[in-house]
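Hi, here's the filled form for the chain we discussed.

Project: internal
Contact: R.S.
Residues: 343
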Amino acid sequence: MLSRLSLYPLPLLLFVLTAFGCGGSDPIVVIALHPSKSQIIYIATNDYIFKTRDGGQTWENISKGMSHSRVISMAIDPAYPAMVYAGTKGDAVFKSYDGGQRWTSLRNGLESNTVTSVVTQFVFDPRESSHLFVSTTMGVFESVDAGESWQKKMDGMKEVLMVVTLALDRTRPQMMFAGTSGGVYKSVNGAGRWEKANNGLVPPELIKSSRALGVTVMQVDPFAPDTVYAATLNGLYKTTDAAATWTRIGQELPDQMISAMVLDRARAGRLYIASRAGIHKSEDGGKTWKAINKGFTSLNIRSLAQSAIDARLFYAGTNGSGLYRSEDGGETWVPMPPLHGKA
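And the returned structure, exactly as it came back:
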């Protein structure tokens, strides 16, 4: 299965993944947690966006005003949390200024790409939240006015258009990493120029191929900014020299197709990965791993998020058995009420 799926264009694979095991409920594609109010959570499924104001006891469908395009990514403005962004499959970016009650289409600069573009991730400049980037199947775009207009930032990425994930160093925001359908690119000037950074990640014989290796998730270590993790369609990789070289880790993990990754914000070296084999945790930077799946009825995990308020509070979204919460750092998981709990 893995070798066959690795032939898919990466954005298409994201949708294929949500089809596995969808028995009881819609896949939980995105989990967005309010930065300062733990009771407020946003969830995107294949069809709708839901919001809870009471920690998940009741949910409200807040998709009114949006198109019927599937939501693939969401982000909450860290400085002004009432501002919420949603990235879609084929209909660019939507933004709400009032916590999801009303949505406005933001496509200035994305207009010519909305038919085929999938908006896969939002990344904010930690110095100014009105400055943000999106990764899309048509490349990287930048906005300096909170999404009102966008500019393509692909200088140096001639071989690759599909950009699936972005990561930046919060201590040095000019240093950015882009995970693409052809490996990793790095920028040291805020996406002004990109250079390939595939040494050890992509085999030399495939280094010129735009389909060499699909990267699905990237994260910069908050405790060691030269350390970056890259999850791919075929395993997990780590660099400790800002992407000069990469080393494969986690080869003992039961599923090498990773859907989500969290680097613990409270403890150095601790990371979590999610896949079709559940959630696994490492306490030593990826050298050793243990499964933390107690309480799940399905191990097919699609999304994973850690609270910005309580480092032991996690949420996991499955591909068919709903949303789960852990209050002990992932050691045990409890199912949450269904998303249609409030009209």
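Let me know if anything looks off before we file it.
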